[in-house]
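Q: I'm building a small set of examples for a reading group on sequence design. Run inverse folding on the following structure and report the sequence directly after it, with nothing in between.
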């Protein structure tokens, strides 16, 4: 049995959870707050970051969302995440990296710092200026998704791929934190509704982070 060390608002953990759910890989969730820097967790991953997945019997340890999903992509044939020609796979990897690096760094990380870390860890009030800036930048990224979906069925092309699950994982955290304005973004909203309707998404939509309530539309497929 696999154990996934994660916490509810970690977008990289969510990315792995969506892929494992889509591929039908049995796993147990283990709550890990990386800011606590538990010795046992640091021993597994010296970077102290989630996600980490462990196969209990073999003691196999996989670290980081991209190595984890690529491992299961190679091991499990169901629901391919990196399919198609070399050019198609390159585009999937480009967008996956773009969302994991740029969307996370520009929007998700600042929001998590202001609305989660300050509330749960440092007990500080959020910086409203930083929140407004993150929300403005989030709108720019939704504009880009609209652009992609103008000519593509899915974000990276004609097939559902890791790019879609990666973007959806990050957007789900932004949406949970109440920082997405869906007005004027019907194409991306329709795509996200389809992603939310997949069975692998249901556990994420039903989960809550203590002390932080999502907006009322968060867990609704039609919103």
């Amino acid at each position: 049995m696999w154990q996934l060390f994660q916490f509810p608002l970690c977008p990289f953990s969510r990315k792995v959870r969506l892929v494992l759910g889509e591929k039908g890989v049995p796993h147990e969730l283990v709550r890990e707050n990386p800011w606590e820097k538990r010795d046992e967790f640091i021993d597994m991953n010296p970077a102290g970051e989630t996600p980490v997945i462990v196969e209990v019997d073999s003691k196999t340890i996989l670290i980081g969302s991209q190595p984890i999903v690529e491992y299961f992509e190679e091991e499990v044939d169901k629901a391919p995440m990196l399919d198609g020609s070399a050019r198609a796979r390159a585009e999937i990897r480009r967008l996956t990296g773009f969302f994991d690096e740029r969307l996370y760094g520009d929007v998700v990380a600042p929001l998590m710092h202001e609305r989660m870390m300050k509330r749960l860890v440092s007990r500080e009030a959020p910086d409203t200026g930083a929140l407004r800036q993150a929300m403005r930048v989030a709108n720019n990224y939704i504009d880009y998704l609209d652009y992609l979906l103008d000519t593509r069925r899915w974000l990276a092309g004609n097939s559902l791929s890791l790019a879609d699950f990666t973007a959806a994982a990050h957007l789900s955290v932004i949406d949970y934190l109440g920082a997405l304005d869906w007005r004027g973004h019907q194409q991306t909203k329709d795509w996200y509704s389809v992603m939310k309707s997949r069975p692998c998404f249901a556990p994420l939509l039903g989960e809550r982070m203590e002390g932080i309530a999502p907006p009322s539309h968060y867990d609704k497929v039609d919103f």
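The first strand starts at residue 2 and ends at 6.
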